[in-house]
């Protein structure tokens, strides 16, 4: 099969850059020049340039032109080390994710440089800069406060300029074109809410995390489930919280009781939240699931340990970690590898939901 015209140009420019004929900082031929040289339309030229911009070979500067940003003279010696950055490490779902990553890396001869951010952007900046300075062959990163604008975008651009393969886990930053391996959080919110709807619940409250993108996606799934069922959306039944608000929800007791008023069902952002809600309801004379049915997300150990075992959407945990490590290793060998994976969720039934129908 004949190569498309735009890919012929992509390959030609890449070869020129990688061979050193076009050097770092040098201005590329104009669209008109390339169009004439290859006998193709300017639209085809733009298509090729857009691909090379995405692959960090070129950078388009408005009013100035297109420049080479790939430095062929910079050669990184393999370190056989992968940087792994998560928001937390020692508890909840994180040990299993990290174990999955480590198992794959170890079997492939790599060591793991592990760091965590406590979901604080200043920690993310420090950790990423440290890894850049020390040198790693690739990075697996859980984004920090992915639901908010991030001040560390320049560091991510530097990582890409240095052509260090990088993969996000659990979430991603809107606006940064980096592959991710995650649970399908929209589907998780949809599935959890539909479970409550199928159990006969019509007025369903929700608690979601505002500063992580997962919270936005789970909320979107929650909304879609209610709309598909023909139910009205009630903003007063939704509570948003941020990283700074955990682990102590006791200050929210009045707000939470108002949010669930008139509701028979509640979707919690995760098992950590749900476990606190079960305790809070007990202290305020509200029985789970008799008075309030509850579904959470992640299916962590807490779902079993909770006083009322939680019906919860399962997070892939270990498999997610293994897949992330495998896909990053593929990216190290081939930067064009399609590494994004969204795991479809499944629900694990326990005792926190009362069937009304």
TrEMBL record:
Residues 3-71 form the HTH gntR-type domain. Keywords: DNA-binding, Transcription, Transcription regulation. Gene3D superfamilies: 3.40.50.2300, Winged helix-like DNA-binding domain superfamily/Winged helix DNA-binding domain. It holds the Pfam family GntR. PROSITE patterns: HTH_GNTR (PS50949). This is GntR family transcriptional regulator. It comes from Caproiciproducens galactitolivorans.
């Amino acid at each position: 099969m004949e190569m498309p015209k735009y890919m012929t140009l992509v390959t030609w420019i890449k070869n020129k850059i990688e061979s050193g004929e076009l050097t770092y900082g040098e201005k590329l031929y104009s669209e008109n020049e390339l169009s004439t040289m290859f006998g193709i339309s300017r639209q085809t030229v733009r298509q090729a340039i857009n691909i090379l911009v995405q692959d960090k070979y070129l950078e388009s500067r408005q009013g100035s032109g297109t420049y080479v940003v790939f430095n062929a003279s910079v050669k990184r010696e393999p370190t056989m080390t992968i940087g792994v950055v998560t928001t937390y490490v020692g508890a909840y779902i994180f040990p299993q994710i990290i174990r999955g990553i480590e198992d794959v890396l170890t079997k492939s001869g790599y060591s793991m440089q592990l760091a965590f951010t406590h979901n604080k952007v200043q920690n993310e900046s420090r950790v990423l800069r440290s890894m850049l300075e020390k040198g790693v062959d690739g990075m697996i990163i859980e984004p920090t406060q992915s639901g908010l604008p991030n001040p560390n975008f320049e560091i991510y651009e530097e990582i890409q300029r240095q052509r260090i393969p990088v993969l996000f886990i659990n979430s991603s930053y809107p606006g940064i074109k980096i592959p991710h391996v995650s649970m399908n959080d929209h589907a998780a919110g949809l599935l959890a809410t539909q479970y409550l709807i199928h159990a006969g619940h019509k007025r369903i409250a929700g608690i979601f995390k505002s500063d992580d993108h997962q919270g936005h996606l789970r909320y979107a799934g929650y909304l879609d489930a209610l709309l598909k069922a023909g139910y009205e959306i009630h903003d007063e039944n939704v509570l948003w919280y941020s990283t700074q608000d955990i682990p102590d929800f006791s200050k929210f007791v009045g707000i939470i009781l108002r949010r669930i008023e008139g509701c028979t069902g509640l979707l919690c952002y995760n098992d950590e939240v749900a476990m606190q809600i079960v305790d809070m309801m007990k202290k305020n004379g509200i029985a789970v699931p008799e008075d309030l049915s509850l579904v959470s997300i992640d299916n962590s150990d807490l779902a079993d340990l909770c006083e009322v075992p939680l019906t919860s959407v399962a997070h892939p945990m270990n498999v997610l970690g293994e897949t992330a490590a495998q896909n990053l290793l593929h990216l190290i060998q081939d930067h064009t590898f399609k590494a994004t994976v969204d795991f479809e969720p499944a629900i694990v039934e326990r005792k926190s939901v009362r069937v009304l129908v």
